[in-house]
Amino acid sequence: MYSLSDFNFELPPALIAQVPLASRSASRLLQVNQDDCTDRSFTDLPNLLQAGDLLVLNNTRVLKARFFGVKETGGKVEILVERLIDTHTVLAQCRASKSPPAGTRINLAEAFDVIVGERVGEFYTLTFPDNAIDLIEAHGVLPLPPYIEHAADEVDAERYQTVFAQEPGAVAAPTAGLHFDQAMIDTLRTHGVQFATVTLHVGAGTFQPVRTENLAEHNMHSEWYSISEETVQTVRATQAAGRRVIAVGTTSLRALEAASQSGKLQAGSADTNLFITPGYTFKTVDKLITNFHLPKSTLLMLVSAFAGYERIRHAYAHAIAAKYRFFSYGDAMLLDRES
């Protein structure tokens, strides 16, 4: 039985990628199979897949979800939108010297006011005066991960968004998808690789470390996902043909596995707090493309469950020694599911 300390590792700060590479597909790719790991380039990916394989992409779009505001009393507030509830209402984190009570009016970005509603766990309900997505996109700031030390700029506005992003609602990018440019997608198609999409709106909880040594005591954050009937049928046809379902990113994997808890992938939309740790039986995904993850994170536990704990420990030690770039703007891995 694994505990939290089993998922810790020392990472030299210099290996945390602070900016994207000049080209999306210029990153390195560590191929981790049943026996060993091999240093490759992401541009090798088409030669590592087979005609008929299916890549499942998360088409969520990152919102400009961070705001700086002022309460009526003059107190400063930092807001991070976590989730859209409806066209005018969101759940958000609020950082302020004092917790704002219901009914508080907050001016955001010197542009409009929101009204604080009920508290929902660690979040606050905020009501916007007009369409929330429109106001967020017009006046908000892109919420880069906490380990990226510069303020979001025009480069980030483009590169911290996948080229296939369509559905607005995430506060963090599905970072494995950042390696794909249109040229890579076109090349994969010419090799006979298929594509399907799911939507999982990544929440800020993805950056939160687990704090309980006993993993069973961890309360997993919840995220909303949606899988279409078209994607379900494409997955089933791929499986029937004996080809592989490859999740692009842990968010695509979580959506697929959350929708497969009956034993068979089902279309639909729901919240998931599925916490995947070693011992989990995967039901749909055969291979995983992913970035390198934070120590003590649920995502490190997920990839350890998928590829095998010892194999991931070895792969991370190799990546550190070979000076791979880590986290959101970092390099990628291609993982086989443990037999």
Task: Give a brief outline of the structure.
The protein has 339 residues and is α/β, with parallel strands linked by helices.
Q: What features would you describe in this structure?
A:
The protein has 339 residues and is α/β, with parallel strands linked by helices. The chain folds into two domains: 241 residues, QueA-like; 74 residues, Thrombin, subunit H (Beta Barrel). Helices cover 21% and strands 28% of the residues. The chain has a nine-stranded mixed beta sheet, covered by helices on one side. Strands 5-6-7-10-9-8 form a six-stranded antiparallel barrel. Helix 7 crosses helix 8. The longest helix is centred in the C-terminal third of the chain and has 13 residues. The protein is globular.
Compute the CA-based radius of gyration. Answer: 20 Å
Helix content: 10-25%
- CATH topology tier name of the largest domain: QueA-like
Average pLDDT figure: 96
Beta content comes to 25-35%
Keywords, please?
single chain; 339 residues; alpha/beta; QueA-like; Thrombin, subunit H; 2 domains; nine-stranded mixed beta sheet; six-stranded antiparallel barrel; 8 helices; globular
List the helices and strands and how they pair.
Layout: E1 28-32, E2 37-41, H1 45-48, E3 54-58, E4 60-62, E5 66-71, E6 76-84, E7 89-96, E8 105-108, E9 112-120, E10 123-127, H2 132-139, H3 154-159, E11 167-170, H4 182-190, E12 194-200, E13 223-227, H5 229-240, E14 245-248, H6 250-258, E15 268-272, E16 287-291, H7 298-307, H8 309-321, E17 332-336
Parallel strand pairs: 1-17, 3-12, 3-14, 4-11, 14-16
Antiparallel strand pairs: 1-2, 5-6, 5-8, 6-7, 7-10, 8-9, 9-10, 12-13, 13-15, 16-17
